[in-house]
Design a protein that fits this description.
Elements lengths: L6 H8 L1 H12 L2 E2 H8 L3 H13 L3 E6 L2 E6 L1 H23 L8
Antiparallel strand pairs: 1-3, 2-3
């Protein structure tokens, strides 16, 4: 059973600020103003990171007047967690079966 992990999604989430944004959005839906206050990042920098998260499908937007609110898409995070769970399951089965390639 071969399991692969979405490397593009890992790259997107590997950035410390983007991971902080995802963590904050896991707790509540926030607008850019809230995220600037919470992270201390500059608005332009934050907007760029939110664009990357949106393009990767990690967050979705909700317009509200002159503000845009961001919401985490839990299914994307669950999918990635499932991929890692698959890797762990494969590693456990490999260790239990003592599978190893012989050296020539």
């Amino acid at each position: 059973m071969m399991t692969s992990v979405d490397t593009e999604l890992i790259r997107v989430l590997a950035d410390p600020l983007r991971l902080q944004i995802v963590t904050l959005l896991s707790r509540e839906t926030l607008c850019t103003t809230h995220l600037v206050e919470e992270t201390g990042a500059k608005q332009t920098n934050l907007s760029n990171h939110l664009r990357v998260l949106r393009e990767a499908g990690v967050v979705e937007t909700e317009p509200c007047g002159r503000f845009t609110y961001y919401r985490l898409r839990p299914d994307v995070i669950e999918g990635l967690a499932g991929q890692f769970a698959g890797l762990a399951q494969t590693a456990r089965a490999t260790a239990e079966a003592n599978v190893k390639r012989s050296c020539a």
